[in-house]
Every structure is written in structure tokens, then in C-alpha cells.
Design goal:
Elements (H helix, E strand, L loop, with lengths): L2 H17 L4 H12 L9 H13 L4 E5 L5 H7 L7 E6 L2 H13 L6 E5 L2 H10 L7 E4 L6 H10 L6 E4 L16 H14 L4 E10 L2 E10 L3
Parallel strand pairs: 1-2, 1-4, 2-3, 4-5
Antiparallel strand pairs: 5-7, 6-7
Helix pairs in contact: 2-5, 3-4, 6-7, 7-8
């Protein structure tokens, strides 16, 4: 680990230790995910708390998450729901979904979270057909090359006032490389081009450093028609 990353990680750990209370369910979710061999690409604890605070302050009663992984961010978001609230989370990999299912059960959230397993771009149309929207908050954290397509579905499943959050936008700064051969970088560039030309949303982006390295996220608010 280089000196810069070590400092970012140390500060992130200090902030987490200072501001976040120990949480057995969240710790167990990370441990179970690691034991099952899931990639360590979940949001950081401070980022998870930010998701929760945004959902709670926004009064979100219906949340859609695109990309479950081991359910770590799902737990943070589901805990923001008021009584009667509901969260639907989409995951491509059946193995990841099984780990998430156990983690959500351990956290006591099985009754408020609905899991959908399969390719997101196949599941999202079915949500529309079933009348599952609109959602008050949508968190996109799945395969980055398809982010532009996920964003279009998020718009279809939103309403004026919905909040759309998109993670891992900056890609260690590679975002600005128009000639990049990385599908994730090109996917994020296509997504940002869409946002820039989308009159239905007002958006901003925040760069971040910490235990997850150098990255960033987009926050988009669906405007009144």
C-alpha cells in the first residue's frame, strides 16, 4: 500500500471509529462475504452511513438497489425505511445473493427486503410490468459498463423528487481518459453524458478518498415536471 493510500485508509478508519457505533450485524455481513470469497468492493462504513442518512432524510419508503453483493449496503439502506417501507435489491450472481440472504436474515431484515436474482437489465423491465415502482431512492452499484442503461431504467422507475445515487464514478481518476479501453470507464463516461443531457434531473458529483481508494459518486434529483 502506498503512503497516500495508507493515510486515506487510516483517516477513514479514524472517522468510522469516531462516528459509527460497533454493529454486530454489519461486521458479520462483511466477515461472511469475505469467507464466501466475494470481492471486497462493498461501500465503506462511512459511505454506508451516508446512504442511510440520505434515505432517512429523504423520507424514502420504497428503495431500489441495483447490485446487492453480500448485502452490506442493503442493510444500511433497509434500516432507513419507516414502518411499512420496502426495499428491492437486484443481484446477478446467485452465490452472492445467497450470502446476502443470510446476512439480511441475521440483521432481521428479511421481511422488508425483496431479492431478485438475474441480469439487472432483464429484471428491471419485469419490475415495471409488475407495477413495482415508483421508488423514492435508487442506488446503482452494479456492473459499471451498464450504468447508463441502469440510469435510464431508474428514471422510468422514479417520480419527481426521487433521488438516484450512482457509485464508483471516478474510477481512480481514469474517468477523464476518453481513450481508455476499460469498459467500466467508458460506461461511466456514457452515463455522465446522459446525465448532462437529461433535463429531468439535477445532479452533482463528489470525489472521495478512503479505504476504498480514490473514487466518487453522483447524486441526481428527479425534478418536477
Amino acid at each position: 500500500m502506498d503512503t497516500e493510500q495508507a493515510r486515506w485508509s487510516a483517516v477513514d478508519q479514524y472517522l468510522s471509529d469516531s462516528l459509527l457505533a460497533p454493529d454486530p450485524a454489519l461486521t458479520a455481513a462483511l466477515e461472511a462475504s469475505a469467507a464466501a470469497g466475494l470481492p471486497a468492493i462493498n461501500v465503506s462504513p462511512c459511505q454506508g452511513k451516508l446512504l442511510q442518512l440520505l434515505a432517512r432524510s429523504h423520507g424514502a419508503r420504497r428503495i431500489l438497489e441495483i447490485g446487492t453483493l453480500g448485502g452490506y449496503s442493503t442493510i444500511w439502506l433497509a434500516r432507513a425505511l419507516p414502518p411499512g417501507g420496502r426495499l428491492i435489491t437486484l443481484e446477478l450472481e446467485a452465490q452472492y445473493a445467497e450470502v446476502a440472504r443470510a446476512n439480511l436474515a441475521r440483521a432481521g431484515l428479511s421481511e422488508v427486503v425483496e431479492q431478485c436474482v438475474g441480469p439487472g437489465l432483464e429484471t428491471l423491465p419485469r419490475l415495471t410490468e409488475k407495477g413495482q415502482g415508483p421508488f423514492d431512492l435508487i442506488f446503482i452499484d452494479a456492473d459499471k459498463s451498464s450504468t447508463a442503461e441502469y440510469f435510464q431504467w431508474a428514471l422510468k422507475l422514479s417520480h419527481p423528487g426521487s433521488l438516484i445515487l450512482v457509485d464508483n464514478v471516478v474510477r481512480k481518476g481514469e474517468l477523464i481518459d476518453a481513450a481508455s479501453n476499460d469498459p467500466a470507464v467508458q460506461g461511466m463516461r456514457r452515463f455522465l453524458d446522459q446525465v448532462a443531457n437529461e433535463s429531468r434531473v439535477s445532479a452533482t458529483a463528489i470525489q472521495t478518498v478512503g479505504i476504498k481508494g480514490y473514487d466518487g459518486f453522483v447524486v441526481a434529483l428527479v425534478k418536477d415536471e
